[in-house]
UniProtKB/TrEMBL annotation:
UniProt xrefs under PROSITE patterns: RIBOSOMAL_L1
Described function: Binds directly to 23S rRNA. The L1 stalk is quite mobile in the ribosome, and is involved in E site tRNA release.
Protein name, as recorded: Large ribosomal subunit protein uL1
One BP annotation, GO: translation
Amino acid sequence: MATNKRHAAAQAKVNRTQAYGLDEAIALVKGNATAKFDETIEISLNLGIDPRHADQMVRGFVSLPNGTGKTLRVGVFARGAKAEEAQAAGADVVGAEDLMEKVQAGEINFDRCIATPDMMALVGRLGKILGPRGLMPNPKLGTVTMDVKGAIEAAKSGQVEYRAEKAGIVHAGVGKASFDAAKLAENVRAFVDAVQKARPTGAKGTYMKKAALSSTMGPGVQLDLSAFAG
C-alpha cells in the first residue's frame, strides 16, 4: 500500500498533458525518485520510423559524458594474445569454445558481448541465444573488433547501446537519481543528439515524435522536444 500511495503522490505532481523543459523535467523525476534504492533515470524516445524496414532501423552506441552509474559486465570471445588483452583490460568473462558452451547452457554472465573477427564463426552458432537478448557482436557497433581493449574500456566507461523496438521506441538509462541535475542534463542531451544523428535514410516526416523521462519507480514526465531542435 505504501508503494501505491507513493506512486499516486508522484503522479499528482506531474501534468501528463504538459511537455516540460529539460531542467524542470529532471527536477520532477529526481523529486519523485523516493524508493529505498538509487533509481535509474530512463529516457524513452518515440520515433517516426518502422524498424521492420532495414532503411528505418535506428541502432548504435553513445558514450554518456557522466557515465550511467552502472558497471557493465563484459564478455569477450577471443584466443591467445587477444584473450590476454581482454583480461588485462578488465573483461568479466573471456573464452572461446568454453565460453560458447557456457552460453549454450544458459550461463550468460555479461551485459555486452565483444568478439575478435576470427571468433565470429564460433559466435555465429549462438545467434538464437544472443540475438534476442541484444548481445550479438556486430562490426557496425564496434563489438566485432581487433581493438579489444578499446571496446572494453568504452563499455565500462558509460557507453550506452540504443536500439529501436517494433513500435519505434528507443529507451535507455541515462544515469541515477543520485546524479547531479546538471550531469543528468548533459547525459540526456548527449543521448538525444546521438539518436538524432542516427536518423535513418528511410525516415519520413517527423523523426522525433515524443520523449519522456522517468525513474525506475516513478511516473513518466513528457519532454519538450523543441529544446533539442537543430
